[in-house]
UniProtKB/TrEMBL annotation:
One of its GO terms (cellular component) is catenin complex. CDD domains: Cadherin_repeat. Residues 4-84, 85-193, 194-308, 309-413, 413-531 form the Cadherin domain. It comes from Anseranas semipalmata (Magpie goose). PANTHER family: CADHERIN-12 (PTHR24027:SF96), CADHERIN-23 (PTHR24027). It comes from the Eukaryota. Cadherins are calcium-dependent cell adhesion proteins. They preferentially interact with themselves in a homophilic manner in connecting cells; cadherins may thus contribute to the sorting of heterogeneous cell types. This is Cadherin-12. The chain crosses the membrane at residues 530-561. Keywords: Calcium, Cell adhesion, Cell membrane, Cleavage on pair of basic residues, Glycoprotein, Membrane, Metal-binding, Phosphoprotein, Repeat, Signal, Transmembrane, Transmembrane helix. It is found in: Cell membrane. It is a single-pass type I membrane protein. Pfam families: CADH_Y-type_LIR, Cadherin. GO terms for biological process: adherens junction organization; calcium-dependent cell-cell adhesion via plasma membrane cell adhesion molecules; cell migration; cell morphogenesis; cell-cell adhesion mediated by cadherin; cell-cell junction assembly; homophilic cell adhesion via plasma membrane adhesion molecules.
């Protein structure tokens, strides 16, 4: 209520209200000054209002007192329940956690005034989820309430949390939320085999490295806590088998490390241990996190191929051994209980295998052709053995036969030598060192000896000096040699080897006599050089070259003059038709210029077109010429032109112009067409010149001339 001291209660004072909510939320009685709320108030929406009031004279409308300001504060009541703004919640806690392990903290918000009464004082409690979890009434922290909660027993829990204001008293408002709690796994369970003995049956033909069986230990844990490692306990059969873990199924895969043989051993027994890879030290007291099982493997007998006594056979035979000679044998046996007979044959792959044969029953290998070590020193082929009872079961072995050498080739000079001797050579001078080679397989320490043949020993020109190290030197025995007397010498050299039987050969060396300087450097070995008394000097060679060049220039000039002369002759020939045609470069010559031959034959009837109109002038009266019959082509003239055109095309000395095509067609730009005789008809009697008088005054003289000529034609009958 507002009241002014100047208000005497006689109605002379009027009260006004302004500010927040004036007229909408609050109203004032202008006479009494009472302030009323015209709608309900919500503290959570606006906790206070600032208003201004004033007393005004009713008559003068002037304020009686200064404007005063006052605040209306909204008093709170408990009209809002607590709310979980972040709910519902999701949390997790490891299994086997102790009592009081922290899980999650929840928080509820109450919109009421926390400074007034207990409207905003919240208390937390669990409506659903006991006795597994508990909650702090003031803080809202959720903790475990039972020890040793096992994930393998129950993994998911749903807890219902309540928040109540007014300190949890009666009449307070409450809100709820859900907390989903999951127990996470820990490695609290060791792996266990579901049975103590596993039986496996494995064929003896199983390949090394192949999987022959699977065993599995069960671990109720999850993820990496359930990863299992399998190991074979050292003992019987442990060296024949191996075990690995299948990462997808956590099974133990048993693999074969070595081949099995039923005839050798029929059964194997060993133990397999399964253990966890990731251990938790908190649960070591529970016991060892591993388990052991026994694996028994029974080997199944299979029908196997024969087995050779050796993995590979190596044999030797001398070359040139007679065909049919036995050089060795292979042996294979059937180790199965039935013990079937074995048959042998060569695995034919190429023609080399045909050099040998094998006895199908005994397995003996013999030569089938003569062998040559120099051609093939080693043979490599395969022998196949099959069971008689089951020919499809075969085994293969590799056979290597080395061909031993027999001394059958004599030694020879290793490379052809180009030996020369100077004319001024002295006796005892070494002019060539030679070596020898033998196609036979030379044994260690084999030596070659060199000597002159008996027929050459009597000629004292050259000699052979054996150095005893498989080389020899060719030495001179004369004091000087003359090319004029003898240019070439042939020296027979005998070479022997040291094998048995001894082989020797005679090799003829060619020695050429050459001209040398005083230091022994060869200057010339050609025969022609003997007959040249002196060499040509540099000046003489230059003079010879200059003479050759001058002669070439003279020949070129002569050929050029000949071509020019021929060209001039062609241009000045009066018989050339081009001389007549070239004078038609200007029109109006008349018939006098065509006395050389009938030029009318050159007319081209294709250029005669109807109704041709001149475009350079505008005629006074447009008159069209009379239609003239087309003139047939003159075949002789066309053939003549084509012949001359072809001759000039292939003639390299012809001048590069031809004006026939230019002057054969005239008058394209004139209405009257060409006045040249080239476009005239062959027979003048067929012409009608009456149309010339219709062309205007410019052609009057021409019309009179041709009209007069027509009137005096004696052939016409009037």
């Amino acid at each position: 209520k507002l009241h002014s001291d100047l208000d005497k209660g006689v109605g002379t004072v009027k009260y006004t209200l302004s500010g927040d909510g004036a007229g909408t939320v609050f109203t004032i009685d202008e006479t009494t000054g009472d302030i009323h709320a015209i709608r309900s108030l919500d503290r959570e929406e606006k906790p206070f209002y600032t208003l201004r009031a004033q007393a005004v004279d009713v008559d003068t409308k002037k304020p009686l007192e200064p404007e005063s300001e006052f605040i209306i504060k909204v008093q709170d009541i408990n009209d809002n329940e607590p709310k979980f703004l972040d709910g519902p919640y999701v949390a997790s806690v490891p299994e086997m956690s102790p009592v009081g392990a922290y899980v999650l903290q929840v928080k509820a918000t109450d919109a009421d005034d926390p400074t007034y009464g207990n409207s905003a004082r919240v208390v937390y409690s669990i409506l659903q989820g006991q006795p597994y979890f508990s909650i702090d009434p003031k803080t809202g922290v959720i903790r475990t309430a039972l020890p040793n909660m096992d994930r393998e027993v129950k993994e998911q829990y749903q807890v219902l949390i309540q928040a109540k204001d007014m300190g949890g008293q009666l009449g307070g408002l409450a809100g709820t939320t859900t907390v989903n709690i999951t127990l996470t796994d820990v490695n609290d369970n060791p792996p266990r085999f579901p049975k103590s003995i596993f039986h496996l049956k494995v064929p003896e033909s199983s390949h090394v490295g192949s999987a022959i069986g699977r065993i599995r230990a069960v671990d109720p844990d999850f993820g990496k806590n359930a990863e299992i490692e399998y190991n074979i306990v050292p003992g019987d059969g442990g060296n024949l088998f191996d075990i690995t873990t299948d990462e997808n199924t956590q099974e133990g895969v048993i693999k074969l490390k070595k081949p099995l043989d039923f005839e050798t051993k029929k059964a194997y027994t060993f133990k397999v241990e399964a253990s966890n890879l990731h251990l938790d030290h908190r649960f070591h007291s529970v016991g060892p996190f591993k388990d052991t099982a026994t694996v028994k493997i029974n080997v199944l007998d299979m029908d196997e191929p024969p087995v050779f006594s050796k993995p590979m056979y190596t044999m030797e035979v001398y070359e040139d051994t007679p065909v049919g000679t036995i050089i060795g044998a292979v042996t294979a046996q059937d180790l199965d209980a039935g013990s079937s007979s074995v048959r042998y044959f060569i695995d034919w792959k190429n023609d080399v295998d045909s050099y040998f044969t094998i006895d199908a029953t005994e397995g003996t290998i013999a030569t089938n052709e003569l062998l040559d070590r120099e051609s093939t020193a080693q043979y490599n082929f395969s022998i196949i053995a099959s069971k008689v009872s089951n020919p499809l079961l075969t085994s293969k072995v590799n056979v290597i036969i080395n061909v031993l050498d027999v001394n059958e080739f004599p030694p020879e000079i290793s490379v052809p030598y180009e030996t020369s001797v100077c004319e001024n050579a002295k006796p005892g001078q070494v002019i060539q060192t030679v070596t020898a080679a033998d196609k036979d397989l030379s044994p260690a320490g084999q030596r070659f000896s060199f000597r002159l043949s008996p027929e050459a020993s009597n000629k004292p020109n050259f000699t052979v000096h054996d150095y005893r190290n498989n080389t020899a030197g060719i030495e001179t025995r004369r004091n000087g040699y003359s090319r004029r007397q003898q240019e070439l010498y042939f020296l027979p050299v005998v070479i022997e080897d040291s094998s048995y039987p001894v082989q020797s050969s005679t090799n003829t060396m060619t020695i050429r006599v050459c001209r040398c300087d005083s230091d022994g450097t060869i200057l010339s070995c050609n025969v022609e050089a003997i007959f040249l008394p002196v060499g040509l000097s540099t000046g003489a060679l230059i003079a010879i070259l200059l003479c050759i060049v001058i002669l070439l220039v003279i020949v070129v000039l002569y050929v050029a003059l000949r071509r020019q002369k021929k060209k001039d002759t062609l241009m000045t020939s009066k018989e050339d038709i081009r001389d007549n045609v070239i004078h038609y470069d200007d029109e109006g010559g008349g018939e006098e210029d065509t006395q050389a031959f009938d030029i009318g034959a050159l007319r081209n009837p294709k250029v005669i077109e109807d109704n041709k109109i001149r475009r350079d002038i505008k005629p006074d009266t447009l008159c069209f010429p009379r239609q003239r019959p087309p003139v047939e082509d003159n075949t002789d003239i066309r053939d003549f032109i084509n012949q001359r055109l072809q001759e000039n095309d292939v003639d390299p000395t012809a001048p590069p112009y031809d004006s026939l095509a230019t002057y054969a067609y005239e008058g394209n730009g004139s209405v009257a067409e060409s006045l040249s005789s080239i476009e005239s008809l062959t027979t003048e009697a067929d012409q009608d010149y009456d149309y010339l008088s219709d062309w205007g005054p410019r052609f009057k003289i021409l019309a009179d001339m041709f009209g007069e000529e027509e009137s005096y034609n004696p052939d016409k009958v009037t």
